[in-house]
């Protein structure tokens, strides 16, 4: 069958196309089929029809950079700022790094500052395109076109272009934006960090050097220099990381304590194990897990944790108490007595330790008596 009848068939049956597929004109635009697109338009295809995926034909052409089809659609009444599921065609061209398509749209007065509930400004789309494989040079070409067309370089919606460029480590884009007049002192609205702090945190000294001459001194940075900024950010990063870790540990410790109250010792042991991964130097966690191990009959594991507790905090009597309990469960009563003695030296007033010591002494005597009784019966 010749091409023209096939295309005609598609025009006539466009209503039967699946809702999640582009209509015939959208397919032609997506594939760069200029002749087919022209034929469809000549036979009444709607250049502003939004398909089931939220794209109009203009979005489809912009996505793959089909410039001839793009010009054709615009000449036949396609709306340059038509909103789709992912913004306007300018957003699409920016997202895919298609500078040629982007220039055509801008030449037809596409709005370089258009935003919607689901899309940020085209300038941010062009910068973030590098995260899905677009080269920085292609991204930069789009950035330059948008800036020359009047894109707002200092709009924080949700963050500024410099914040995005700093986040993705785009050196050439950072240089261009600074030279074009972008303000490097506007912080990220979510985290409150400026572009220079973002690049310092990522360890990119060369980017710190680019931003430094344009950035005003930050009050919380004690020494305003390139090295001073890097040192400050590293220190802050460690403090923030430590706080997050401490919060996580506290949460796990609380869950463990609750499980102990409910006598779910196996569950509590798991919570304490997770907390130990966060802070392997906390003696209390080993003490608590030792107690849980003992309650579920894992005396050897209880002893291992008790020894870890003593190693980390040798002047804390509870570690020795836990060790004594584990040794008692393992029937090593003499060693248990010695361990409780060490605990009593650290806390002579503890009634619990005293009672545990005398229980261990009684168990040791009973064991000795049983041994002597067995020897006597054998000699008889």
TrEMBL record:
Q: Which Pfam families match?
A: Ank_2, TPR_8
List UniProt keywords, sorted A-Z: ANK repeat, TPR repeat
| Top-level taxon | Eukaryota
Residue ranges crossing the lipid bilayer per the database entry:
none
Q: Identify the SMART domains for this entry.
A: ANK, TPR
Cite the repeat ranges for TPR. 249-282, 317-350
Protein name as catalogued: Uncharacterized protein
Q: Which organism is it from?
A: Triticum urartu
């Amino acid at each position: 069958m010749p091409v023209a009848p096939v295309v005609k068939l598609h025009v006539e049956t466009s209503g039967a196309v699946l809702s999640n597929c582009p209509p015939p004109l959208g397919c032609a635009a997506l594939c760069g089929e200029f002749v087919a697109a022209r034929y469809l338009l000549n036979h009444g295809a709607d250049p502003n029809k939004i398909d089931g995926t939220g794209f109009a034909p203009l979005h489809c052409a912009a996505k793959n950079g089909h410039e001839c089809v793009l010009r054709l659609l615009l000449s036949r009444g396609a709306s340059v700022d038509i909103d789709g599921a992912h913004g306007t065609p300018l957003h699409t061209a920016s997202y895919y790094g298609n500078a040629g398509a982007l220039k055509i749209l801008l030449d037809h007065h596409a709005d370089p500052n258009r935003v919607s509930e689901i899309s940020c400004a085209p300038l941010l789309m062009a910068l973030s395109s590098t995260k899905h494989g677009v080269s920085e040079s292609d991204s930069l070409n789009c950035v330059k076109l948008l800036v020359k067309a009047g894109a707002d370089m200092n709009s924080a919606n949700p963050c500024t272009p410099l914040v995005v460029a700093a986040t993705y480590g785009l050196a050439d884009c950072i240089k261009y934006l600074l030279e074009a007049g972008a303000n490097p002192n506007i912080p990220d609205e979510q985290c409150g960090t400026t572009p220079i702090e973002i690049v310092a945190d990522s360890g990119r000294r060369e980017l710190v050097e680019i931003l430094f001459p344009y950035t005003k001194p930050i009050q919380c940075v004690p020494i305003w220099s390139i090295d001073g900024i890097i040192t400050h950010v590293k220190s802050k990063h460690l403090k923030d990381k430590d706080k997050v870790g401490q919060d996580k540990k506290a949460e796990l410790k609380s869950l463990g304590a609750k499980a102990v109250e409910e006598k779910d010792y196996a569950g509590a042991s798991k919570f304490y194990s997770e907390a130990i991964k966060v802070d392997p130097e906390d003696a209390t966690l080993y003490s608590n897990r030792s107690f849980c191990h003992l309650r579920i009959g894992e005396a050897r594991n209880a002893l291992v944790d008790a020894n870890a507790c003593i190693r980390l905090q040798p002047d804390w009597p509870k570690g020795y108490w836990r060790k004594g309990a584990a040794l008692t469960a393992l029937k090593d009563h003499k060693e248990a007595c010695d361990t409780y003695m060490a605990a009593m030296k650290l806390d002579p007033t503890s009634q619990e330790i005293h009672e545990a010591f005398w229980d261990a002494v009684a168990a040791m005597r009973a064991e000795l008596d049983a041994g002597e009784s067995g020897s006597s019966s054998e000699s008889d």
